[in-house]
Amino acid sequence: MISFIGAGPGDPELLTLKGKRLIDAADVIIYAGSLVNPAVLADPKEGAKIYNSALMDLDEVIEVMEAAEKAGKKCVRVHTGDPAIYGAHREQMDRLDQLGITYEVIPGVSSFLGTAAALNAEYTLPGKSQTVILTRMEGRTPMPEREKLQDLAKHHASMVIFLSIGFLDQMTEQLLAGGYEPTTPVAVVYKATWPEQKIIRGTIADIEGKVKEAGITKTALTVVGDFLGSEHDLSKLYDKHFTTEFRKAKEE
Ligand code: SAH
């Protein structure tokens, strides 16, 4: 059985207990070397073979998995954040299905959650937005026709934009074309939860300049929306005049 493991956004203490137990016991570790913090692999089993998938294509990854299975060795595939978000683990699972090799997925803390934590932010702020859009810009790989940033921007939901820090000029242009005010708050978080984490706050109008000045060109998320502002409603969940399943409203 192959275990796909979400390594979390960076801080090795944000790896799940289950993920850590499986990594530490594995004979073969394939990890996404471009983003996974090597500290996540700090206590491997003696003699464990470690492969960096940044240097491998899909066939090579599957060959290593297949060889491990045939030899009766435990193989783990370590992805950054959670594999379900831009992890490209589906194509690996499909290949394993064809080969009759079983697998499981151990979720991880996605960088969009590490980013919210770094910002002390709640994406679903009452009276501002109750929807979170996770997306990316069209870059070297295309976006589906109905998912262009400009169209998604029309919802004024809380937006988290992956893989796109190199296209900030086009990003801000498209957000404005989608109807956001230039004063809408934006934050860019570089390497959320890593020791070198950087937070840049600004608006759609000035974020590009600030990010350039900070020299950030990769491993960053851009988050956009009024949830980053200072105003919002209070939740009903903790409202003393609101009855919930567990708590009766107080009379005054
Ligand atoms: N599966 C990952 C995302 C992989 S796509 C997850 O769940 O987080 C890679 C992109 O994720 C990067 O280009 C960057 O936009 C973002 N990213 C990954 N780790 C990050 C981190 N620690 N801080 C900020 N952005 C990060």
Structural features, described:
The chain has 2 domains: 2-106, Tetrapyrrole methylase, N-terminal domain (Cobalt-precorrin-4 Transmethylase, domain 1); 111-228, Tetrapyrrole methylase, C-terminal domain (Methyltransferase, Cobalt-precorrin-4 Transmethylase, Domain 2, 2-Layer Sandwich), CATH 3.30.950.10. Helix content is 25%, strand content 19%. It has 7 helices and 10 strands. The chain has a 5-stranded parallel beta sheet, sandwiched between helices. The protein has a 5-stranded mixed beta sheet with strand order 6-7-10-8-9, with helices on both faces. β6, α5 (149-153) and β7 (158-162) form a beta-alpha-beta unit. The chain starts with a strand and ends in a 28-residue tail after the last strand. The model has no long low-confidence stretch (mean pLDDT 94). S-adenosyl-L-homocysteine is lined by residues 9-10, 35, 79-82, 85-87, 110-111, 114-115, 162-163, 189, 191-194, 219-221.
